[in-house]
Specification:
The chain has 335 residues and is α+β, with helices and mostly antiparallel strands. 37% of the residues lie in helices and 21% in strands. The termini are far apart. Bound molecules: nicotinamide-adenine-dinucleotide. The site of nicotinamide-adenine-dinucleotide (NAD) has 24 residues, from helix 1, helix 2, strand 3 and strand 4.
């Protein structure tokens, strides 16, 4: 058996590495996300059946891709991880059961339910309320310094509001391109014979990772905060016990937070949130590819901890694939 399995593992890893390089480094994916996800799951399954063959450099153990050398590098003292996926209600139930077993609790979870924005993760550092640095996720440990570019996004405050701002605050969130701006930009490109972007995610990534911030400034980018990284806060306003309250505190400091975020109790209510957002997906002003369900209680989050590349207390509950291979391959787009 083992030679054939080893070969299959090697092929899958190589294929996923190639796709990741095109997606994360070149902002130019060659296959739809659903195809990437399918191969990723195949690899996960194979590694689960043969745990002794898991390697530290397998795509299942890693986040994103190494940052591009043309940007300065920023270390993330608190790593920026990925999320595990659930496809369907059964996998979501399994996620809830795993957590209940680990915490040895039968009480219903309080969940913070959020749209899964289709952009790219960034970390923005404020010192005494002033924006001092912004970075991409990169490989989770080292990202690219994109401070000048992030400063051009009008929704991102250069200075936090209020008197009690932390000495240090790393805000994590998604930079994305709302659909109206994306369509307008592509219409203009078509009219002038320029290349069009394939989708808002690639438009956002290509726009943000520009060496010239003047180009970024012309792109209709938006940001929503959804988490915090390193914090030094003598007033301890972020230690309030709930992820949801944390987000509301970020909002009070002037950071944009998605208006569709809800705090719910129990798995059924989280499922109802998923259904509701899926039905309203086409009417939203931005693209999403699912929802993120997070255990809201910070003490429970801490007790659950992390696995190799993702927290145990959150899951990306993805929508069924909509993307067509032809759409992606037929359209040329610029970085
Ligand atoms: P992910 O996109 O599945 O989930 C993690 C990311 O979700 C975070 O880093 C963050 O950027 C984002 N996110 C959006 N809203 C969020 C919220 N409210 N809270 C927390 N995070 C939120 O994982 P990933 O590791 O960034 O990428 C893997 C995915 O990228 C794959 O599932 C695949 O769909 C796609 N991908 C596609 C290709 C391709 O060739 N098409 C290649 C590599 C990856």
């Amino acid at each position: 058996m083992s030679q054939a399995i080893l070969q299959q593992l090697q092929q899958l890893r190589q294929q996923l590495e190639d796709y990741s390089y095109q997606y994360y480094v070149l902002d130019n994916p060659s296959v739809p996300d659903a195809e990437y996800d399918r191969l990723f799951r195949q690899l996960q399954q194979l590694e689960a059946e043969h745990p002794h063959l898991v390697t530290a450099d397998s795509p299942t153990q890693r986040v994103g891709a190494v940052p591009l050398a043309k940007f300065g590098q920023v270390s993330h003292n608190i790593p920026m991880l990925s999320l595990d996926n659930a496809f369907g209600a059964d996998e979501f139930s399994a996620f809830c059961k795993r957590m209940a077993d680990m915490l040895d609790s039968s009480a219903e979870f309080s969940f913070c339910c959020e749209p899964k924005l289709d952009g790219l993760a960034v970390s923005i550092r404020y010192e005494n309320g002033l924006l001092v640095q912004a970075a991409t996720r990169g490989d989770g440990y080292t990202g690219e310094d994109i401070t000048a570019n992030v400063k051009t996004i009008r929704a991102v405050p250069l200075k936090l509001k209020g008197a009690s701002v932390p000495a240090v605050l790393e805000v994590r969130g998604e930079v994305f391109m709302p659909l109206a701006g994306f369509n307008l930009m592509n219409d203009k490109a078509r009219a002038t014979g320029d290349k069009v972007f394939a989708n808002p995610r690639n438009a956002a990534a290509g726009s943000l990772r520009q060496l010239d911030p003047k180009i970024t400034a012309q792109r209709p980018l938006m940001f929503y905060a959804y988490a915090v990284g390193a914090v030094e806060d003598p007033v301890q306003l972020l230690d309030s016990g709930s992820h949801y309250q944390r987000l509301m505190q970020l909002k009070d400091w002037g950071l944009p937070v998605c208006a569709e975020i809800r705090l719910v109790t129990g798995a059924e209510a989280a499922l109802a949130y998923y259904q509701d957002i899926m039905q309203r997906r086409a009417a939203l002003a931005y693209e999403i590819d699912g929802v993120v369900i997070k255990v809201a209680d910070l003490a429970q989050q801490q007790a659950l901890g992390f696995v190799a590349r993702a927290p145990r207390w959150a899951i990306a509950f993805k929508f069924p694939a909509q993307e067509m291979l032809t759409t992606l391959l037929d359209v040329e787009f610029q970085v």
